[in-house]
């Protein structure tokens, strides 16, 4: 009987949140998978969870017999190819990916998935909550021509090592966006997150939400920006970009220093903000702003919420979070995410 939920990387920074959330109602249905069986066993024992464990390397060809009882797979680690997603589709297994990788999104989007199972992407904070906020604004302002998605992360938050690695790796890249001439440089374009009493800068960054939303609305201009709750840190990254020095962060020694700084939590707070603004003719018309604590925790809660919906429904084909849930429904389900503003007066961009 195919009724199990397999979580690849379910003992990691975000994966552990998903595991603990789903275990509240599906403990006997969960199977944790990873390369190091001893770590999985230690994790389940530490939390006193009655879940299954399975030795599995996602980079290697999967064995069909290991997946005979699996109904849904949740992947919490980055991948370089779509081989595993295609395997799940061929085995009649729904697949949900918790990743912000644009390259992997484009790979999935180019595949020809049939309509028998669901392949779900854009699940988390950005992408994820940002997609739902954009979809909400698009319902209220159907003739918008531009959308600005701004993410502010708290430097004192407990960012996982994989998340820090991913952020540093993408700080110096350039990328293409629909309805944008030429390439966009990470930390090249500026936007402001407007909060009560303060404005925080954010700069262009290659989250996948702007690409999936651009595919949904190909005539609109959509861009995502990243900043931090300590303004001078954000501006330091911007200064390094202008001087052409961001590629230095890829050097092992400098990368170690940067990772240590970002993971130390000595500055800022663990609060994050997400603000999405819809514009028409360069004038801000509608906006939504949400906040919360511990970005990884909220990402895991969002992923668990969507996983449960996929588990109990018949999702078909390659879909995004906005095909599964609405923004208001998500807010009601996740009290750790708070709406702090639902509008803004029309102003010049």
Automatic annotation (TrEMBL):
Pfam families reported for this sequence: Sacchrp_dh_NADP
InterPro entries membership: NAD(P)-bd_dom_sf, Sacchrp_dh_NADP-bd
Saccharopine dehydrogenase NADP binding domain: residues covered: 5-107
PANTHER family, per the entry: CARBOXYNORSPERMIDINE SYNTHASE (PTHR43796)
Protein name: Saccharopine dehydrogenase NADP-binding domain-containing protein
Taxon lineage: Bacteria, Bacillati, Bacillota, Bacilli, Lactobacillales
